[in-house]
Design a protein that fits this description.
Blueprint lengths: L21 E3 L5 H14 L9 E4 L7 H13 L4 E5 L26 H14 L1 H4 L1 E4 L3 E4 L8 E4 L4 E3 L8 E4 L3 E7 L2 E4 L9 E6 L3 E4 L2 E4 L12 E5 L4 E5 L2
Parallel strand pairs: 1-2, 2-3, 5-7, 6-8, 7-9, 8-10, 9-11, 10-12
Antiparallel strand pairs: 4-5, 11-14, 12-13, 14-15
InterPro entries: CAP/MinC_C, MinC, MinC_C_sf, Septum_form_inhib_MinC_C
Keywords: Cell cycle, Cell division, Septation
Protein name: Probable septum site-determining protein MinC
């Protein structure tokens, strides 16, 4: 009689990891909010592609049927919802994205340090294309022009671009953005809740400027700040674009 040796149980390893997710917070009337979203997508096609998006419904507090419709509407716009925030709301069915539990909003003194390892790899992968160098204070310097289709995401501080930023490209930073050439693409500063962040560029031909989620598209900018050296900053939750010098 032979006896089989007992199989060794394989341990399962669980590890925590922090990711930066974008949050959408719909407001009533929903039809107008969707129209505003459509304008954003029209000016920034592909902005949400491949990005985790959380749907914050604590302001709207819709019924489950309304959530189902909203998730479908966002799906038609190429926005895939990763999770839903809804405190004390109706139970979500298994056909909807899961309710987010225990989430903390990222801040400059919160998740940034923890997100560094997760966010570092994509930036390192783009180093050959954009010749990036880290300076002191978590500042990222990009020594070459940013070409159309390129995306620079820096979750740890400011971004400095020594060249120009082409149309169809984007820079996303938790801190401020400095472009010493022409800015033709999209620039989003203070994306992790830094309302003091600013955007500076030597020549403004941007498709979109955004600080802490407040944005202005090329169509909405005044002619007096187009083609000029400008700075963009928040003033009482209003995005201001002012000429430099």
């Amino acid at each position: 009689m032979t006896f089989a040796a007992p199989l060794e149980a394989k341990s399962i390893r669980f590890r925590a990891r922090s990711f930066v997710a974008f949050t959408l917070t719909p407001e009533a009337p929903l039809s107008e909010w969707l129209e505003s979203l459509d304008r954003w997508i029209g000016n920034s096609p592909g902005y949400f592609t491949g990005r985790p998006v959380v749907l914050d419904l604590n302001t709207l507090k819709p019924e489950v049927s309304q959530i189902e419709t909203l998730v479908v509407e966002l799906g038609h716009r190429g926005i895939r919802i990763y999770a839903i925030e809804l405190d004390g709301g109706a139970a979500l069915g298994s056909h909807l994205p899961p309710a987010l539990i225990g989430a903390k909003e990222a801040t400059s003194d919160g998740l940034l340090a923890g997100a560094k390892a997760a966010a570092g790899k994509p930036e390192e992968a783009k180093a050959d294309e954009a010749k990036e160098t880290r300076l002191g204070g978590d500042t990222l310097m990009v020594k070459t022009p940013i070409r159309s289709g390129q995306s620079i995401f820096h979750a740890h501080g400011d971004v400095i671009v020594l060249g120009s930023v082409a149309s169809g490209s984007e820079i996303v930073a938790s801190g401020s953005i400095h472009v010493y050439g022409t800015l033709r693409g999209r620039a989003s500063a203070g994306v992790l809740g830094n309302s003091a962040a600013r955007i500076f560029c030597r020549r403004n031909e941007a498709e979109l400027l955004s600080v802490d989620g407040w944005y202005c598209t090329a169509e909405e900018m005044e002619a007096s700040v187009r083609g000029k050296a400008v700075q963009a900053f928040l003033d009482n939750d209003t995005l201001r674009i002012a000429a430099l010098g």
